[in-house]
């Protein structure tokens, strides 16, 4: 395999140069020529390495004018490092000694490793929080340009492996840490019973890096108190991502959730391609292009299918989670840096008939055992809500609407992919499809519908 | 065990006499003396047999003035036959030759095996559908009077076994059948894409009675066409339960859902005690007292805990289902007659501290692996919506409200039963509790929250 190895090394050098040179670039018009990096498709698939650092991540938004970090052909593998945007809740455990994380979270007065955080104005003229205003919070690695991808095609992303990122602090060798923030955007926030209310509480969890222990446990929690960032802005609440928490100001309560073991569900909360409707799109509301779906089933062994909206697709992923329940009730999961191995497969629009991606206009998950459709309050909020969509979606969150959308998508899947009549599809939905509440914290709230593969003769494993 | 056997026989004789003599009776005032049948508690638990026939079922409602069919002491077992109210969708397969079912479904002009069907007026003066108006549809077996039960106590119901009721028609030996109605109250009904619309469609499913096959399959479906009942009332839609379908009028489409295997989930859609707020309560909307929760997890191995509202508790069960998805989207499950074996255990209010039933004000499910709380659009719609609650609940259905209620109940469970602080409970909910949509078809819509037992040291099986 020496040849393959050499090819990979060559690619890496080229790729890094590209990233350093041009963070934003004009997007080629649809129908434009493919970039030079795509010109010759190698005879065997390549395995790219995409580390997470301040050159390879974008923070809080999707953008069609963001320069690709990797140019991948259909069938290529990519090892992708992803960082949690909550690492600075406990920098000792989640940033210190980790060169990639340090480059991203670096922040001194007037200097940030990644300045823009969110889709808002760079001068923070609306809220004064900081560049990008925190309108969008997730650290996303990418984008990955998929050679030959055009609007109307479908991008398949197979998640071959997901592993926790070990703490780089020798004091915590063998451990990985994550943060759960019960935050102001949480579902519980205006509905508390204990004093003082409201309040934001961060719980730090730990897991074993070996992969042999399948649960996480709490280490301590603390109440958020106003934090002053290196630029002098005071954050009374968690309103900007990556603010370093000064642990001399907070009171760590150890011994919380004693004996409680949280089953691991390693997954990417946010993964998706770039929408065409607007540029610089808040990373928080999920939509037809995927994004912040926050379905814990999008982990190892899962395969996502996304409708491609712009040339190259431009896949990014991040918002890594160690565990999350259906609803992500308090606003976050166990937010933990993870490294994934994915394979990208391009399905051209003219070859979709008869596949699971036929006429697909929404993000579809296939797992070992099931197909899962993702419904939202608005199936395509950018198109449906117009120019102010990115603000208005937050006032239109609704589980009821998301259920309606999930019902329609599951019916579409059963009629299109499985060839059922509407009557067959509706009966089968009533007796065999499970609808669950994906999240109630991401503006465009989500309901997913799950149908098991064993139901269908063509999917049954005999 | 001869002694036990004789005692049971004695009881059975007494019980049948009671049922035949007084179907309705004045309820003893709270604090009244226990009925004579409860006076001497035997030294060992008894096993009662409660067949389903026109003397032991009530159709479409819960009522505190309904005479008990069984008087059980805490710890007693009851084998309970339950009948699906959809059996007359295909009487050949689901009624014919079955003496119990025939006695219930018997209907000739001016004579019905069970006249009242629903909580409406007996003279059908509102809609003209028939006695009880079909305001409530489920055939419920019972009630079971639990000796010593008082308001404020908790009734635990362990479901030890659930088995399908074989077809009594020799042409269908070894099979059990069920009906799925995609009906006018279904979630899809005003949101169809194929013509003609709207339409109601019934799909007949079959399962194996041996218990060795774990899936059901469709036999045929047909569109509902107007059916004239034996009293001459025309039912243009499925608006009254137990109307015999004339199969010379419908077109059976065989070969539907070809090759599709629906995984079995035998369970009781409706089980609960009697509410105190009103008498003759529509069986459709679930509430604090249980009732038509339609959670498919309420099957074999499950244990329900209900807050008791009236003396004796008065447990009834029915609405048996062979399979259902979370949402029961089209309005029904695979509606199939089942026989269960349950154990009733009474928990007196003064002994609830430190148990899973501490301060319990809602129906709680415990399975082998999990605890499940049940939230509704209105936690107690009878109390919250006042005199017109039974009508108004249908215009106030909301998944959003049910999610809010389920969140509050899960928080209550974690803080009360598991002793967590609010901050611990909220964090754990976000990372480990799954919220799903139980049903969107029962007026008082449902969301359930599930937390796995393995999370807690005291529930972990080492």
How do you describe this structure in short?
The structure is a homodimer of 462-residue chains. Chain A is of the alpha+beta class and 462 residues long.
Please tell me about this protein's structure.
2 copies of one chain form a homodimer. Chain A has 462 residues and is of the alpha+beta class. Helices cover 15% and strands 29% of the residues of chain A. Chain A contains 7 helices and 27 strands. Chain A has helices at 2-21, 91-94, 99-105, 381-385, 389-392, 399-416, 422-432, and strands at residues 47-50, 57-59, 61-62, 70-72, 77-82, 107-108, 111-112, 139-146, 154-164, 175-182, 201-208, 215-223, 227-228, 234-235, 253-254, 262-263, 267-272, 281-282, 290-291, 303-307, 313-323, 334-335, 338-347, 364-366, 370-376, 434-439, 446-452. Chain A has a 9-stranded mixed sheet. In chain A, strands 2, 4, 8, 17, 19, 21 and 22 form a 7-stranded mixed sheet that branches. Chain A is globular and about 60 Å long.
What is the alpha-carbon Rg of chain A in Å? 21 Å
The count of helical stretches of chain A stands at 7
Overall pLDDT level of chain A: 93
Work out the helicity level of chain A. Answer: 10-25%
Strand content of chain A: 25-35%
Instruction: Give the termini separation of chain A.
Output: 36 Å
Shape of chain A: globular
Please give the number of β-strands of chain A: 27
Q: Biggest sheet of chain A: strands, sense, closure?
A: 9 strands, mixed
- Biggest sheet, spatial arrangement of strands of chain A: 1-5-23-9-20-24-25-27-26
The biggest chain-chain interface is:
A-B, 67 and 67 residues
**Quaternary assembly:** homodimer
Uncertain segments of chain A are 1-22
Structure class of chain A: alpha+beta
């Amino acid at each position: 395999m020496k040849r393959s190895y050499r090819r990979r090394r060559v690619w890496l050098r080229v790729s890094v140069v590209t990233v350093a040179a041009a963070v934003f670039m004009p997007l080629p018009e649809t129908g434009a020529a493919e970039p030079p990096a795509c010109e010759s498709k190698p005879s065997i698939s390549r395995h790219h390495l995409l580390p997470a650092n301040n050159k390879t991540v974008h923070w809080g938004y999707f953008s069609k004018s963001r320069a690709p970090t990797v140019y991948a052909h259909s069938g290529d593998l990519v090892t992708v490092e992803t960082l949690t945007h909550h690492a600075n809740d406990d920098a000792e455990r989640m940033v210190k000694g980790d060169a990639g994380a340090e480059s991203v979270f670096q922040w001194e007065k007037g200097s940030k490793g990644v300045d823009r955080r969110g889709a808002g104005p760079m001068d923070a003229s609306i809220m004064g929080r900081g560049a990008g205003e925190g309108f969008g919070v997730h650290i996303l690695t990418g984008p990955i340009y998929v050679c030959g991808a055009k609007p109307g095609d479908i991008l398949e992303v197979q998640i071959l492996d997901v592993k926790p990122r070990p703490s780089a602090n020798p004091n915590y060798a063998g451990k990985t840490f994550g943060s759960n923030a019960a935050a102001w955007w949480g579902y519980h926030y205006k509905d508390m019973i204990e004093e003082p209310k409201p309040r934001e509480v961060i719980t730090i969890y730990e897991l074993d890096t070996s992969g042999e222990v399948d649960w996480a446990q709490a280490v301590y929690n603390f109440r958020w108190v106003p934090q002053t960032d290196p630029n002098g802005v005071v954050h009374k609440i968690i309103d900007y991502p990556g603010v370093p928490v000064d642990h001399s100001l907070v009171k760590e309560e150890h011994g919380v959730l004693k004996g409680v073991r949280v089953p691991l569900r390693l997954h990417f909360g946010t993964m998706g391609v770039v929408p065409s409707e607007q540029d610089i799109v808040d990373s928080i509301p999920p939509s037809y292009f995927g994004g912040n779906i926050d379905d814990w089933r999008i982990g190892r062994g899962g395969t996502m299918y996304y409708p491609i909206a712009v040339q190259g697709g431009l896949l990014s992923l991040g918002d890594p989670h160690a565990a999350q329940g259906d609803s992500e009730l308090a606003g976050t999961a166990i937010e933990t840096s993870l490294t994934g191995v994915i394979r990208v497969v391009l399905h051209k629009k003219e070859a979709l008939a008869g596949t699971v991606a036929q006429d697909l206009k929404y993000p579809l998950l296939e797992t070992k055992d099931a197909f899962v459709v993702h419904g939202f309050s608005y199936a395509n909020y950018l198109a449906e809500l117009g120019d102010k969509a990115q603000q208005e979606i937050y006032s239109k969150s609704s589980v009821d609407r998301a259920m309606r959308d999930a019902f329609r998508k599951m019916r579409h899947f059963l009629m299109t992919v499985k060839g059922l009549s509407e009557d067959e599809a509706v009966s089968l939905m009533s007796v065999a499809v499970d609808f669950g509440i994906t999240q109630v914290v991401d503006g465009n709230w989500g309901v997913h519908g799950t149908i098991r593969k064993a139901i269908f003769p063509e999917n049954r494993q005999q």
